[in-house]
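Reopening this one. Same input as before:
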Amino acid sequence: MRCGNSKWGYRHIAHRWSRSFEGHIKATLVLWDKEGKQGEKRIYCLKVAASEKRHWFKVVWTTAYVSTDHGIHLYIITATWDAKQSDVPADQKTGCAKIK
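Same output, byte for byte:
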């Protein structure tokens, strides 16, 4: 997973990482319910419905190859929970709730 830039990085997700979190990433990439595209990014969403705040699990993936010291790769940019947003007007929804 590529997370962050020269000013911040993986530490912002370290506190939430677990086998369960990793399992959600794997499941989302294989069993996704919604797929969105934003330029060179793909957004995959899996409906989990654990709560209002944890309704979707979202993985954002880049389709642009990134050159590193270890070669050229594709990366997961981020993975996170996404809210249901049932009370938000359609034109104001974000993330998985926005994808049709």
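So the earlier flakiness isn't reproducible anymore. For the record, Residues 19-31 form the longest helix (13 residues).
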